[in-house]
């Protein structure tokens, strides 16, 4: 089981680094297929997200793609919103959480499809708006075991006119805040499996390194297309599990 989880960790870490996600988006469905209940899977994924998001954000900062400045307000909002995730997991049924996760993925796919390339459009800079968006995403995302970047990236690209590379880096940085907040909240309610979470989390660091290295060499349009492909795969896995 340890070797299997370590391999999963490396794979999820690569996905996390390349697509700028915490990893829970793909890890939760995988753990559900392995027999974990969604609530246990959420607790494990949040531990992994802490590892991958902190290390991945450090690498992005070193490579110059992470511009903290005002985008840190997404993260502050995410931290505040994530504090309510433990209550949400305790209150909602496993089926409701699974449906919520599926709806999140569908929204991300839709927004990426309708988003333009934003050529000639200025990025929207509004720290108050960033905080509000971050708070909402933090609450929803942590409640279904994902870091929130799956929601934040299409919002930044489609609504706020950020470039895909900058949005991906900022979204992974957002996960640092939302995952730490979710970890605190879910730990309080007893939903965090530290043993399995740490195994996957430490293993994911290797994958994160290679994922970010490949991402920085990938053409932006191709990068966006691959993110869409990932979302479709995740949607299929979740829908099949729900059925």
Low-confidence stretches: none
From the alpha carbons, calculate the radius of gyration and give it in angstroms.
Answer: 16 Å
Query: How many domain modules?
Result: 1
Helix/strand class: mainly alpha
Share in helix: over 70%
Order of helices and strands: HHHHHHHHHHH
Beta strands, count? 0
Number of helices: 11
Main beta-sheet strand count, sense and barrel state: none
> Could you give the distance between the termini?
27 Å
Q: What characteristic shape results from the CA principal axes?
A: globular
Short description:
The chain has helices at residues 2-19, 24-33, 38-63, 72-82, 85-91, 94-114, 127-143, 149-158, 164-188, 194-215, 220-242. The chain is mainly α.
Task: Detail the topology: elements first, then pairings.
Elements: H1 2-19, H2 24-33, H3 38-63, H4 72-82, H5 85-91, H6 94-114, H7 127-143, H8 149-158, H9 164-188, H10 194-215, H11 220-242
Helix pairs in contact: 1-3, 1-10, 2-3, 2-11, 3-9, 3-10, 4-7, 4-9, 5-7, 5-9, 6-8, 6-11, 7-9, 8-9
Question: What can you see in these coordinates?
Answer:
- With 243 residues, the protein is mainly alpha-helical.
- The chain has one domain (2-242).
- 78% of the residues lie in helices and 0% in strands.
- α1 (2-19) runs parallel beside α10.
- The model has no long low-confidence stretch (mean pLDDT 85).
